[in-house]
Amino acid sequence: MGEQREASVSAAAVAHSSNMQRVKVYRLRDGGKWDDQGTGHVAVDYIEGSKEPGLTVLDEEDNETLLVHNITSEDIYRKQEETIISWRDPEAATELALSFQEAAGCSYIWDNICDIQRNLQFSNLGGLEVGPRPASEHLEASRVLHSHDESFRSVNGELRELPPVDLSNLPLILKTILEGGITDQMRVAELITQDRDFFPKLLDIFRMCEDLENLDDLHMIFKLVRGIILLNSPSIFDKIFSDEFILDIIGALECMISPPVLCFFLFLP
């Protein structure tokens, strides 16, 4: 009797895990139509033949590969509602999305993506360090960022304020902008537009890093400005396209984007 109960519990656990990982893969086609690429099970693991972590989706019927995507610190991921994660894949030159059967599975994969990007970001900030950082250092870096992030939130998890704009806080500000859901992103946009000193301080840091030819921090500022633009907030656009800030905003993006691509990026509809 006990063995039957254990077998039943084990089968239920396997089914729950399978449901958590069950996703539909969508690809955005020309004309704005999302094409269903199939249903399968998603996992976060090291890509075969690579030392880089990524997302893989295997078809639930024939185990064929539906998706292989390397997770990098450059990618901008969006969590929409409770069950969708989307991003632009540079290799596919289009938008991709995963639609999860269960919100818990979406949250689990989202947390994994955020942790990987956070660890990659800290590796990029290693300056002259060569080679991969020990796992213990990655974990400590993630712990420090998480503890600092919590200090800017209320008891119910709502973002109360942004970290102060200074050079040491740039990774934390970037994390705050990129990792939130729709509600958090709206709150971040609101806090940025309410803070009169946000852009002046950020662009002062940009000019200082430019004068010092500090490429690591210029790269960080580029990603931060790009993330702010992708919040798609009209009130933020009013600020960054103002005469006061536009030249420095373009300068911050020019560090990493060629001029033709920059023009396309800035004037997307």
Automatic annotation (TrEMBL):
Segments spanning the bilayer are 245-268
Q: What is its main location?
A: nucleus
Protein name as it appears in the record: Serine/threonine-protein phosphatase 4 regulatory subunit 3-like central domain-containing protein
- List, alphabetically, the Pfam families matched: EVH1_PP4R3 (PF22972), PP4R3 (PF04802)
What SUPFAM superfamilies does this protein's entry cite? PH domain-like
Native organism: Triticum urartu (Red wild einkorn)
Q: Keyword Electron transport: yes or no? A: no
Q: Which UniProt keywords apply?
A: Membrane, Nucleus, Transmembrane, Transmembrane helix
Q: Does the keyword Transmembrane helix apply?
A: yes
Any one Gene Ontology cellular component term annotated for this protein = nucleoplasm
Domain (Serine/threonine-protein phosphatase 4 regulatory subunit 3-like central) ranges: 180-255
Q: Which gene encodes it?
A: LOC125530366
